[in-house]
């Protein structure tokens, strides 16, 4: 089985990246991370990449005169690494339609709720968990989904549930959800490594 070539885009501390690295090193995910890219030069995710001898690249829109130039640079990195999938792990920027079209059904993201609930613009990080608790629902979770031109809209590959406790704060709920994220992302990526995911009309089908 060919290893899945990944490039990871992230903006923060990189715990989801670390979980993916850990699963690869444990032999549970048949993939290799070709590069980690962050729009934040001080993001912890770049340090995590360096600690594992993975190329760590700071790439920000602010470094370029136009968005088109940024897209061209990002595309050149992705093509140079011959990636199979682009993995978003807490990346705080919307990808341009140019990138999304070029890598249609090959860009994946994880969201800390059960989409389509609690998704869309503004629904990221602790804001998601605040909205979940405020709504009064008893179950939340994580969603691994493909990325298209609309926030949190692409085909759903995997969902896992997490109970909402009566005494939960947004922070305590976030902590429990994050543990499930760390497991689900690598499980979903392994399905792609095994060639078991088929995307048809914005729906993901998992082959036995």
Defining traits:
alpha/beta, 2 domains, Rossmann fold, 7-stranded mixed β-sheet, 208 residues, 35% helix, single chain, 6 helices, two-stranded antiparallel ribbon
Model description:
- The protein has helices at residues 15-25, 44-51, 67-80, 97-102, 126-135, 170-193; strands at residues 4-10, 31-38, 56-58, 85-88, 107-111, 139-146, 156-163, 197-200, 203-206.
- It is an alpha/beta fold and 208 residues long.
- The chain folds into two domains: 1-103, Formyl transferase, N-terminal domain (Rossmann fold, 3-Layer(aba) Sandwich); 110-208, Rossmann fold (3-Layer(aba) Sandwich).
- The strands form two sheets. The protein has a seven-stranded mixed beta sheet, covered by helices on one side. A two-stranded antiparallel sheet has the order 8-9.
- Helix 2 (44-51) links the parallel strand 2 (31-38) and strand 3 (56-58).
- The longest helix has 24 residues, at 170-193.
- The two termini are 16 Å apart.
């Amino acid at each position: 089985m060919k290893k899945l070539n990944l490039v990871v885009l992230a903006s923060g501390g990189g715990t989801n990246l670390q979980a993916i690295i850990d699963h690869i090193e444990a032999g549970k995910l048949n993939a290799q991370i070709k590069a980690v890219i962050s729009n934040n030069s001080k993001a912890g995710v770049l340090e995590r990449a360096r600690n594992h001898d993975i190329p760590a690249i700071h790439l920000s829109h602010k470094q370029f005169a136009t968005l088109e130039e940024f897209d061209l640079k990002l595309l050149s990195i992705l093509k140079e690494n011959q990636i199979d999938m682009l993995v978003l792990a807490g990346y705080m920027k919307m990808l341009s339609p140019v990138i999304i079209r070029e890598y249609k059904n090959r860009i994946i993201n994880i969201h800390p709720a059960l989409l389509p609930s609690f998704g869309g613009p503004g629904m990221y990080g602790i804001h998601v968990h605040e909205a979940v608790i405020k709504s009064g629902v008893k179950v939340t979770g994580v969603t691994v989904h493909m990325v298209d031109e609309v926030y949190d809209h692409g085909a759903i590959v995997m969902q896992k549930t997490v109970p909402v406790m009566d005494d939960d704060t947004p922070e305590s709920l976030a902590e429990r959800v994050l543990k499930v994220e760390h497991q689900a992302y690598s499980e979903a990526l392994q399905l792609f490594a095994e060639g078991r995911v088929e995307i048809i009309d914005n729906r993901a089908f998992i082959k036995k």
